[in-house]
Amino acid sequence: MQLLVSYCATTVIEFFHSKDQAVGIGEVEEINKPKSEGGVQTPASVATQSQTSDSKSKWKCKRCQEPMAGGDVAVFAERAGPETCWHPACFRCKTCNELLVDLIYFYKDNEIFCGRHYSDLLKPRCSACDELIFASSYTQAEDQNWHLKHFCCFECDDQLGGKSYVAKNSHPYCLPCHEKLFAKVCNTCKQKIAAGAQRVSYEELHWHAHEDCFHCSNCKKTLINQSFLPKQNYIFCSVQCKRQLLS
In this protein, which residues make up the domain named LIM zinc-binding (predicted)? Predict the structure, then answer.
């Protein structure tokens, strides 16, 4: 495992300290059972409403806002305070909806989260390796985050930080690889149309979007921003030109 630089190591320590402040471990216990003392964490507890001395109208599920009837089972989480409870089926991660009864949960901004999605609130996650990014510098591209060394061409693995690239099927490609794999061939000059170059397409036919390539196959009149007649891989400016060439 590669050692973290000093900055990253400090950031990791701060990150896990923040987790300790938010984490709880869910387990089933009676509401009137004495809490364990001396522990760092207090687990979520499950109790029936009949075990509480408060009136039934006081209790309402935080997620669905439905009242909790007498005898209903409720989930209490110390991080949320003694007045907050959930139906067991409602005690779920706000982001992914994973059921968190008897599991580790995290509490932030009055919501509960699983470990993964709580972590995503604190640090960006690399789209390539799916790990959290602790470094101060990273790449943002295609609405995603990447470790600097992981933002690379999907075909040849060359790093793309600071370079031009083309996204295809949600993957980044360097320009040479994109041209090799995906570039269209101009129907007139038979050259590949570079990524970023303007082109005109009709069904399976493609042209460079300039007058040297996209013109009438008979009289060579430019067809840029003009109507045209396609026929047998040719394009024409008029019926007359089509008849002259194909007669």
Answer: 59-123, 124-184
